[in-house]
Amino acid sequence: MSDIKLLENQVVQKIAAGEVVIAPYSVLKELIENSIDAGSKKINVVIKGGGKKYIHVEDDGEGIDERQVELAFTKNATSKIENLDSLSNISTLGFRGEALFSISVVSNVEIITKTDNMQTAIKAKIKQGKVTERGSIPSNRGTKITVADLFYNVPARYRNMKSERKEALSCIDLVSKLAISNPGISFSMISDDKNLFVTSGDGNIRNTITSILGKEYTKQMIDVEYEDYPVTVSGVTLSANYIDKQIEESILIINGRYVKCPAISRGISQVYKDEYGKFSKKISYVLYITLPLNMTDVNVHPSKTVISLRSETLIVMLICEAIKEALYSSINLAEVPLSKKDLYVGEDEDVTDDGNQVVIEQVSSYVSNEYDSSFDKENNISYDINGEYVKESALKDDTVIIDDNDELYKEYVKRRKEISANDDKAEEKDEFKKNIIDTSIFDKIIMMKFCGMVFSAYAMFEMGEELYIIDTHAAHERVLYDEFLKKYKDNKLNMQPLLNAIILDVSVLEKDLCVNNIDIFKKLGFEIDEFSKNSIVIRQIPSDFDLSSAKDIVLSILDALKKNIFDVETKRDELLIKCACHSAVRGKDFVDYEGVIEILKRLKNTTNPFTCPHSRPTVSKVYKKYFLKMFKRV
Question: Does the first or last residue of the chain, that is N or C, have fewer Cβ atoms within 10 Å of its Cβ?
Answer without folding.
Answer: N
